[in-house]
Amino acid sequence: MENFSLILAIVVVTALAFDFTNGFHDTANAMATTISTGALKPKVAVAMSATLNLVGAFLSVEVANTISKGLVDETGIRPEVIFAALVGAILWNLLTWLVGLPSSSSHALMGGLIGATIASAGFGAVHGDALVTKVLIPAVAAPIVAGVAAMLATRFSYQLGKKADGEAASKGFRAGQIASAGLVSLAHGTNDAQKTMGIITLALVAGGAVAPDSDPPVWVILSAGLAIALGTWLGGWRIIRTMGKGLTDLQPQQGFAAQTSAATVILASSHLGFSLSTTHSVSGSVMGAGLGRKGGVVRWSTATRMFVAWGLTLPAAALVGALAESVTDLGDWGTAVVAVFLIASSAAIWKISRREVVDSSNVNDTEDTQEPAGVVTTAIAMVTPPPAGQVTEGLTATIPAPTAAPAVTADPVAPPAAAV
Protein backbone atom coordinates (compact mmCIF):
# COMPACT_ATOMS: atom_id res chain seq x y z
CA MET A 1 0.00 0.00 0.00
CA GLU A 2 2.68 2.47 -1.01
CA ASN A 3 1.80 6.07 -1.84
CA PHE A 4 -1.43 5.95 0.17
CA SER A 5 -1.72 9.71 0.57
CA LEU A 6 -4.14 11.79 2.61
CA ILE A 7 -6.21 12.70 -0.45
CA LEU A 8 -6.46 9.03 -1.36
CA ALA A 9 -7.68 8.21 2.14
CA ILE A 10 -10.29 10.97 1.84
CA VAL A 11 -11.44 9.55 -1.50
CA VAL A 12 -11.81 6.04 -0.06
CA VAL A 13 -13.82 7.30 2.92
CA THR A 14 -16.04 9.41 0.63
CA ALA A 15 -16.56 6.42 -1.67
CA LEU A 16 -17.72 4.32 1.27
CA ALA A 17 -20.05 7.17 2.29
CA PHE A 18 -21.53 7.05 -1.21
CA ASP A 19 -21.87 3.27 -0.88
CA PHE A 20 -23.77 3.82 2.37
CA THR A 21 -26.18 6.24 0.66
CA ASN A 22 -26.53 3.76 -2.18
CA GLY A 23 -27.61 1.14 0.35
CA PHE A 24 -30.44 3.10 1.98
CA HIS A 25 -31.39 4.73 -1.34
CA ASP A 26 -31.85 1.36 -3.04
CA THR A 27 -33.35 -0.71 -0.21
CA ALA A 28 -36.69 -0.11 -1.91
CA ASN A 29 -35.50 -2.00 -4.98
CA ALA A 30 -35.37 -5.25 -3.07
CA MET A 31 -37.95 -4.89 -0.32
CA ALA A 32 -40.60 -2.28 -1.19
CA THR A 33 -43.09 -4.71 -2.72
CA THR A 34 -42.45 -7.30 0.00
CA ILE A 35 -43.21 -4.71 2.68
CA SER A 36 -46.22 -3.22 0.88
CA THR A 37 -47.93 -6.61 0.43
CA GLY A 38 -47.23 -7.60 4.05
CA ALA A 39 -45.08 -10.61 3.12
CA LEU A 40 -42.43 -9.44 5.60
CA LYS A 41 -42.37 -6.94 8.42
CA PRO A 42 -40.37 -3.83 7.52
CA LYS A 43 -37.44 -4.33 9.91
CA VAL A 44 -37.14 -8.02 9.09
CA ALA A 45 -37.16 -7.21 5.38
CA VAL A 46 -34.33 -4.67 5.54
CA ALA A 47 -32.21 -6.93 7.78
CA MET A 48 -32.58 -9.77 5.29
CA SER A 49 -31.75 -7.47 2.39
CA ALA A 50 -28.64 -6.11 4.13
CA THR A 51 -27.27 -9.60 4.75
CA LEU A 52 -27.77 -10.71 1.16
CA ASN A 53 -26.29 -7.47 -0.19
CA LEU A 54 -23.11 -8.27 1.71
CA VAL A 55 -23.03 -11.82 0.33
CA GLY A 56 -23.65 -10.60 -3.21
CA ALA A 57 -20.68 -8.24 -3.04
CA PHE A 58 -18.33 -11.24 -3.08
CA LEU A 59 -19.86 -13.09 -6.03
CA SER A 60 -18.39 -11.16 -8.97
CA VAL A 61 -16.14 -8.24 -9.99
CA GLU A 62 -17.29 -7.78 -13.59
CA VAL A 63 -19.22 -4.56 -12.93
CA ALA A 64 -16.38 -3.19 -10.79
CA ASN A 65 -14.03 -3.70 -13.72
CA THR A 66 -16.42 -1.85 -16.02
CA ILE A 67 -16.23 1.19 -13.73
CA SER A 68 -12.49 1.05 -12.98
CA LYS A 69 -11.23 0.07 -16.42
CA GLY A 70 -13.85 0.73 -19.07
CA LEU A 71 -15.68 4.04 -18.58
CA VAL A 72 -12.83 6.57 -18.39
CA ASP A 73 -9.10 6.63 -19.12
CA GLU A 74 -7.67 5.60 -15.75
CA THR A 75 -4.14 6.73 -16.63
CA GLY A 76 -5.12 10.41 -16.73
CA ILE A 77 -7.28 10.53 -13.60
CA ARG A 78 -6.17 12.11 -10.30
CA PRO A 79 -7.66 11.13 -6.91
CA GLU A 80 -9.20 14.63 -6.69
CA VAL A 81 -11.26 13.82 -9.79
CA ILE A 82 -12.70 10.73 -8.08
CA PHE A 83 -13.49 12.80 -5.00
CA ALA A 84 -15.35 15.40 -7.09
CA ALA A 85 -17.31 12.64 -8.84
CA LEU A 86 -18.39 11.19 -5.50
CA VAL A 87 -19.57 14.61 -4.29
CA GLY A 88 -21.94 14.87 -7.26
CA ALA A 89 -23.24 11.35 -6.74
CA ILE A 90 -23.80 11.68 -2.98
CA LEU A 91 -25.67 14.98 -3.22
CA TRP A 92 -27.97 13.66 -5.96
CA ASN A 93 -28.69 10.52 -3.92
CA LEU A 94 -29.59 12.58 -0.86
CA LEU A 95 -31.79 15.04 -2.77
CA THR A 96 -33.82 12.31 -4.48
CA TRP A 97 -34.11 10.41 -1.20
CA LEU A 98 -35.45 13.55 0.47
CA VAL A 99 -38.32 13.82 -2.03
CA GLY A 100 -38.85 10.04 -2.12
CA LEU A 101 -37.95 9.50 -5.78
CA PRO A 102 -36.29 6.19 -6.73
CA SER A 103 -33.51 7.48 -9.00
CA SER A 104 -30.42 5.55 -10.01
CA SER A 105 -27.44 5.64 -7.66
CA SER A 106 -25.43 3.97 -10.40
CA HIS A 107 -26.10 6.72 -12.90
CA ALA A 108 -25.42 9.36 -10.25
CA LEU A 109 -21.99 7.82 -9.70
CA MET A 110 -21.23 7.52 -13.39
CA GLY A 111 -22.56 11.00 -14.11
CA GLY A 112 -20.33 12.48 -11.42
CA LEU A 113 -17.35 10.54 -12.76
CA ILE A 114 -17.97 11.65 -16.35
CA GLY A 115 -18.43 15.30 -15.39
CA ALA A 116 -15.34 15.42 -13.18
CA THR A 117 -13.25 13.61 -15.80
CA ILE A 118 -14.29 15.99 -18.57
CA ALA A 119 -13.51 19.00 -16.34
CA SER A 120 -10.08 17.55 -15.57
CA ALA A 121 -8.90 15.87 -18.78
CA GLY A 122 -11.40 16.76 -21.51
CA PHE A 123 -13.96 14.74 -23.45
CA GLY A 124 -11.29 12.45 -24.86
CA ALA A 125 -10.77 10.83 -21.45
CA VAL A 126 -14.32 9.38 -21.51
CA HIS A 127 -14.75 6.14 -23.45
CA GLY A 128 -17.89 6.91 -25.44
CA ASP A 129 -18.38 3.37 -26.73
CA ALA A 130 -18.43 1.94 -23.18
CA LEU A 131 -20.76 4.72 -22.06
CA VAL A 132 -23.27 3.91 -24.80
CA THR A 133 -23.11 0.10 -24.81
CA LYS A 134 -22.72 -0.59 -21.08
CA VAL A 135 -24.56 2.35 -19.51
CA LEU A 136 -27.02 4.21 -21.76
CA ILE A 137 -28.48 1.27 -23.70
CA PRO A 138 -29.03 -0.81 -20.53
CA ALA A 139 -30.58 2.25 -18.88
CA VAL A 140 -33.29 2.36 -21.56
CA ALA A 141 -33.66 -1.38 -22.09
CA ALA A 142 -33.72 -2.53 -18.45
CA PRO A 143 -37.08 -1.02 -17.35
CA ILE A 144 -38.73 -2.05 -20.62
CA VAL A 145 -37.50 -5.65 -20.49
CA ALA A 146 -38.24 -5.99 -16.77
CA GLY A 147 -41.67 -4.36 -17.20
CA VAL A 148 -42.78 -6.60 -20.04
CA ALA A 149 -41.49 -9.69 -18.22
CA ALA A 150 -43.30 -8.70 -15.02
CA MET A 151 -46.56 -7.99 -16.87
CA LEU A 152 -46.50 -11.42 -18.56
CA ALA A 153 -45.45 -13.12 -15.31
CA THR A 154 -48.31 -11.43 -13.43
CA ARG A 155 -50.90 -12.61 -15.94
CA PHE A 156 -49.45 -16.12 -15.82
CA SER A 157 -49.54 -16.09 -12.01
CA TYR A 158 -53.22 -15.20 -11.96
CA GLN A 159 -53.96 -17.89 -14.52
CA LEU A 160 -52.24 -20.48 -12.33
CA GLY A 161 -54.18 -19.32 -9.27
CA LYS A 162 -57.64 -19.44 -10.83
CA LYS A 163 -58.51 -22.89 -9.51
CA ALA A 164 -56.47 -22.69 -6.34
CA ASP A 165 -57.83 -21.82 -2.92
CA GLY A 166 -57.53 -18.06 -2.50
CA GLU A 167 -55.89 -18.02 0.93
CA ALA A 168 -53.53 -20.90 0.14
CA ALA A 169 -52.49 -19.30 -3.15
CA SER A 170 -51.91 -15.98 -1.42
CA LYS A 171 -49.65 -17.62 1.18
CA GLY A 172 -47.75 -19.43 -1.55
CA PHE A 173 -47.13 -16.24 -3.51
CA ARG A 174 -46.02 -14.45 -0.34
CA ALA A 175 -43.46 -17.18 0.29
CA GLY A 176 -42.33 -16.93 -3.32
CA GLN A 177 -42.12 -13.17 -2.99
CA ILE A 178 -39.82 -13.45 0.03
CA ALA A 179 -37.53 -15.77 -1.94
CA SER A 180 -37.52 -13.51 -5.00
CA ALA A 181 -36.89 -10.42 -2.83
CA GLY A 182 -33.87 -12.19 -1.39
CA LEU A 183 -32.71 -12.85 -4.93
CA VAL A 184 -33.05 -9.16 -5.78
CA SER A 185 -30.97 -8.27 -2.71
CA LEU A 186 -28.31 -10.74 -3.74
CA ALA A 187 -28.35 -9.34 -7.27
CA HIS A 188 -28.12 -5.80 -5.90
CA GLY A 189 -24.95 -6.75 -4.06
CA THR A 190 -23.43 -8.22 -7.21
CA ASN A 191 -24.17 -5.02 -9.16
CA ASP A 192 -24.34 -1.90 -7.00
CA ALA A 193 -21.75 -2.77 -4.36
CA GLN A 194 -19.29 -3.41 -7.15
CA LYS A 195 -19.65 0.13 -8.47
CA THR A 196 -18.08 1.47 -5.29
CA MET A 197 -15.41 -1.22 -5.52
CA GLY A 198 -14.68 -0.03 -9.04
CA ILE A 199 -14.49 3.64 -8.06
CA ILE A 200 -12.15 2.90 -5.12
CA THR A 201 -9.97 0.73 -7.35
CA LEU A 202 -9.84 3.55 -9.91
CA ALA A 203 -8.75 5.95 -7.15
CA LEU A 204 -6.07 3.50 -5.98
CA VAL A 205 -4.73 3.25 -9.52
CA ALA A 206 -4.81 7.04 -9.90
CA GLY A 207 -2.96 7.45 -6.61
CA GLY A 208 -0.35 4.84 -7.47
CA ALA A 209 -1.39 2.47 -4.66
CA VAL A 210 -2.14 -0.44 -7.03
CA ALA A 211 -1.05 -1.30 -10.54
CA PRO A 212 -3.22 -0.38 -13.56
CA ASP A 213 -5.74 -3.03 -14.71
CA SER A 214 -5.85 -4.52 -11.20
CA ASP A 215 -8.95 -6.22 -9.82
CA PRO A 216 -10.38 -4.78 -6.59
CA PRO A 217 -8.34 -5.84 -3.53
CA VAL A 218 -10.06 -8.01 -0.94
CA TRP A 219 -10.23 -5.18 1.62
CA VAL A 220 -12.03 -3.02 -0.96
CA ILE A 221 -14.61 -5.76 -1.62
CA LEU A 222 -15.19 -6.29 2.12
CA SER A 223 -15.48 -2.60 3.02
CA ALA A 224 -17.80 -1.84 0.09
CA GLY A 225 -20.00 -4.81 0.97
CA LEU A 226 -20.23 -3.75 4.62
CA ALA A 227 -21.02 -0.12 3.74
CA ILE A 228 -23.87 -0.95 1.38
CA ALA A 229 -25.22 -3.55 3.83
CA LEU A 230 -25.27 -0.99 6.68
CA GLY A 231 -27.10 1.52 4.51
CA THR A 232 -29.60 -1.14 3.45
CA TRP A 233 -30.22 -2.15 7.06
CA LEU A 234 -31.11 1.43 8.02
CA GLY A 235 -33.69 1.46 5.21
CA GLY A 236 -34.62 4.24 2.81
CA TRP A 237 -38.18 4.41 4.04
CA ARG A 238 -39.21 7.40 1.90
CA ILE A 239 -38.37 5.62 -1.33
CA ILE A 240 -39.82 2.33 -0.05
CA ARG A 241 -43.14 4.15 0.38
CA THR A 242 -43.04 5.49 -3.18
CA MET A 243 -41.99 2.20 -4.75
CA GLY A 244 -44.35 0.02 -2.73
CA LYS A 245 -47.49 2.19 -2.68
CA GLY A 246 -46.95 5.27 -4.82
CA LEU A 247 -46.66 3.60 -8.25
CA THR A 248 -49.42 1.01 -7.98
CA ASP A 249 -51.23 -1.20 -5.48
CA LEU A 250 -49.69 -4.65 -5.48
CA GLN A 251 -51.06 -8.02 -4.46
CA PRO A 252 -48.77 -10.98 -3.58
CA GLN A 253 -48.99 -12.42 -7.11
CA GLN A 254 -47.84 -9.12 -8.56
CA GLY A 255 -45.09 -8.67 -6.00
CA PHE A 256 -43.72 -12.12 -6.76
CA ALA A 257 -43.79 -11.49 -10.51
CA ALA A 258 -42.15 -8.06 -10.17
CA GLN A 259 -39.33 -9.24 -7.91
CA THR A 260 -38.55 -12.34 -9.96
CA SER A 261 -38.45 -10.42 -13.24
CA ALA A 262 -36.20 -7.70 -11.81
CA ALA A 263 -33.80 -10.20 -10.23
CA THR A 264 -33.43 -12.06 -13.52
CA VAL A 265 -32.59 -8.88 -15.42
CA ILE A 266 -30.11 -7.66 -12.78
CA LEU A 267 -28.26 -10.97 -12.47
CA ALA A 268 -27.99 -11.30 -16.25
CA SER A 269 -26.55 -7.79 -16.52
CA SER A 270 -24.05 -8.43 -13.72
CA HIS A 271 -22.83 -11.53 -15.52
CA LEU A 272 -22.31 -9.50 -18.72
CA GLY A 273 -20.59 -6.64 -16.89
CA PHE A 274 -23.32 -4.09 -17.61
CA SER A 275 -23.48 -1.30 -15.04
CA LEU A 276 -27.24 -1.60 -14.81
CA SER A 277 -29.50 0.53 -12.68
CA THR A 278 -31.33 -1.75 -10.27
CA THR A 279 -33.74 1.13 -9.66
CA HIS A 280 -34.74 1.21 -13.33
CA SER A 281 -35.18 -2.55 -13.42
CA VAL A 282 -37.30 -2.79 -10.27
CA SER A 283 -39.39 0.29 -11.11
CA GLY A 284 -40.10 -1.11 -14.56
CA SER A 285 -41.09 -4.47 -13.14
CA VAL A 286 -43.40 -2.87 -10.55
CA MET A 287 -45.19 -0.89 -13.27
CA GLY A 288 -45.39 -3.99 -15.45
CA ALA A 289 -46.90 -5.97 -12.58
CA GLY A 290 -49.43 -3.19 -12.03
CA LEU A 291 -50.53 -3.36 -15.66
CA GLY A 292 -50.54 -7.16 -15.66
CA ARG A 293 -53.48 -7.49 -13.26
CA LYS A 294 -56.99 -6.91 -14.55
CA GLY A 295 -58.24 -3.75 -12.96
CA GLY A 296 -54.71 -2.80 -11.89
CA VAL A 297 -53.47 0.66 -12.78
CA VAL A 298 -50.24 2.64 -12.63
CA ARG A 299 -50.19 6.14 -11.15
CA TRP A 300 -48.62 7.80 -14.13
CA SER A 301 -48.12 11.19 -12.49
CA THR A 302 -45.79 9.54 -9.94
CA ALA A 303 -44.15 7.56 -12.73
CA THR A 304 -43.65 10.73 -14.77
CA ARG A 305 -41.84 12.46 -11.90
CA MET A 306 -39.69 9.38 -11.58
CA PHE A 307 -38.87 9.38 -15.31
CA VAL A 308 -37.86 13.04 -15.09
CA ALA A 309 -35.52 12.22 -12.19
CA TRP A 310 -34.00 9.40 -14.24
CA GLY A 311 -33.35 11.73 -17.14
CA LEU A 312 -31.76 14.37 -14.90
CA THR A 313 -29.53 12.01 -12.93
CA LEU A 314 -26.57 11.74 -15.31
CA PRO A 315 -26.38 15.42 -16.33
CA ALA A 316 -27.11 16.78 -12.83
CA ALA A 317 -24.48 14.61 -11.14
CA ALA A 318 -22.06 15.39 -13.99
CA LEU A 319 -22.57 19.13 -13.53
CA VAL A 320 -21.95 18.97 -9.77
CA GLY A 321 -18.96 16.71 -10.33
CA ALA A 322 -17.48 19.11 -12.88
CA LEU A 323 -17.97 22.11 -10.59
CA ALA A 324 -16.45 20.24 -7.66
CA GLU A 325 -13.47 19.25 -9.80
CA SER A 326 -12.95 22.88 -10.85
CA VAL A 327 -12.71 23.86 -7.18
CA THR A 328 -10.45 20.95 -6.13
CA ASP A 329 -8.14 21.84 -9.02
CA LEU A 330 -7.24 25.04 -7.13
CA GLY A 331 -5.23 23.06 -4.59
CA ASP A 332 -5.59 21.52 -1.15
CA TRP A 333 -7.69 24.40 0.13
CA GLY A 334 -10.09 23.85 -2.79
CA THR A 335 -10.47 20.20 -1.83
CA ALA A 336 -11.14 21.29 1.76
CA VAL A 337 -13.84 23.71 0.58
CA VAL A 338 -15.58 20.97 -1.42
CA ALA A 339 -15.40 18.59 1.57
CA VAL A 340 -16.96 21.19 3.89
CA PHE A 341 -19.66 21.93 1.31
CA LEU A 342 -20.50 18.22 1.03
CA ILE A 343 -20.75 17.78 4.81
CA ALA A 344 -22.83 20.95 5.29
CA SER A 345 -25.20 20.09 2.43
CA SER A 346 -25.69 16.53 3.69
CA ALA A 347 -26.43 17.81 7.20
CA ALA A 348 -28.94 20.35 5.86
CA ILE A 349 -30.77 17.69 3.82
CA TRP A 350 -30.92 15.44 6.88
CA LYS A 351 -32.32 18.23 9.02
CA ILE A 352 -35.02 19.01 6.44
CA SER A 353 -35.97 15.33 6.31
CA ARG A 354 -36.72 15.37 10.06
CA ARG A 355 -39.68 17.70 9.49
CA GLU A 356 -41.68 14.73 8.21
CA VAL A 357 -40.25 11.46 9.46
CA VAL A 358 -40.90 8.30 7.45
CA ASP A 359 -39.78 5.08 9.12
CA SER A 360 -40.78 1.44 9.58
CA SER A 361 -43.82 2.40 11.64
CA ASN A 362 -45.54 4.49 8.96
CA VAL A 363 -43.95 3.37 5.69
CA ASN A 364 -47.24 1.81 4.50
CA ASP A 365 -49.37 4.82 5.47
CA THR A 366 -50.34 6.45 2.19
CA GLU A 367 -53.09 8.87 3.19
CA ASP A 368 -50.84 11.88 2.66
CA THR A 369 -49.12 10.59 -0.45
CA GLN A 370 -51.88 8.79 -2.34
CA GLU A 371 -52.88 10.54 -5.51
CA PRO A 372 -56.51 10.93 -6.55
CA ALA A 373 -57.45 8.72 -9.46
CA GLY A 374 -57.51 10.50 -12.80
CA VAL A 375 -60.25 10.30 -15.39
CA VAL A 376 -58.61 7.47 -17.33
CA THR A 377 -57.83 5.45 -14.19
CA THR A 378 -61.38 5.83 -12.91
CA ALA A 379 -62.86 4.78 -16.23
CA ILE A 380 -60.66 1.68 -16.43
CA ALA A 381 -61.55 0.67 -12.89
CA MET A 382 -65.29 1.03 -13.63
CA VAL A 383 -65.35 -1.15 -16.73
CA THR A 384 -62.66 -3.73 -15.93
CA PRO A 385 -63.67 -6.69 -13.74
CA PRO A 386 -61.27 -7.97 -11.06
CA PRO A 387 -59.37 -11.21 -11.63
CA ALA A 388 -61.35 -14.44 -11.56
CA GLY A 389 -61.95 -15.72 -8.09
CA GLN A 390 -61.16 -12.38 -6.44
CA VAL A 391 -63.71 -10.74 -4.18
CA THR A 392 -63.45 -7.01 -3.84
CA GLU A 393 -63.02 -6.09 -0.20
CA GLY A 394 -65.61 -3.93 1.39
CA LEU A 395 -68.33 -4.67 -1.23
CA THR A 396 -71.41 -6.15 0.45
CA ALA A 397 -75.09 -6.31 -0.36
CA THR A 398 -77.70 -5.92 2.40
CA ILE A 399 -81.50 -5.77 2.51
CA PRO A 400 -82.65 -2.92 4.69
CA ALA A 401 -84.95 -3.82 7.57
CA PRO A 402 -88.50 -2.42 7.41
CA THR A 403 -88.92 0.84 9.22
CA ALA A 404 -90.99 0.54 12.38
CA ALA A 405 -94.30 2.39 12.38
CA PRO A 406 -94.28 5.48 14.54
CA ALA A 407 -95.97 5.16 17.89
CA VAL A 408 -99.36 6.91 18.29
CA THR A 409 -99.40 9.42 21.07
CA ALA A 410 -102.32 10.81 22.97
CA ASP A 411 -101.60 14.25 21.69
CA PRO A 412 -101.42 13.86 17.89
CA VAL A 413 -99.16 16.18 15.98
CA ALA A 414 -99.07 17.18 12.37
CA PRO A 415 -97.51 14.53 10.10
CA PRO A 416 -94.03 15.32 8.79
CA ALA A 417 -93.69 16.83 5.38
CA ALA A 418 -93.15 14.35 2.59
CA ALA A 419 -89.58 14.12 1.34
CA VAL A 420 -89.11 15.31 -2.21
TrEMBL record:
Coiled coil start-end: none
Record keyword Repressor present: no
Subcellular location as annotated: Membrane
Keyword Phosphoprotein: no
GO MF entries: phosphate transmembrane transporter activity
Pfam families, per the entry: PHO4 (PF01384)
GO cellular component, one term: membrane
BP GO terms, sorted: phosphate ion transmembrane transport
Residues that span the membrane, as ranges: 81-101, 108-126, 132-153, 218-240, 307-324, 330-350
Membrane topology term: Multi-pass membrane protein
Organism domain of life: Bacteria
Major location category of this protein: membrane
Keywords: Membrane, Phosphate transport, Transmembrane, Transmembrane helix, Transport
Protein family per UniProt: Belongs to the inorganic phosphate transporter (PiT) (TC 2.A.20) family.
Listed name of the protein: Phosphate transporter
Organism: Streptomyces adustus
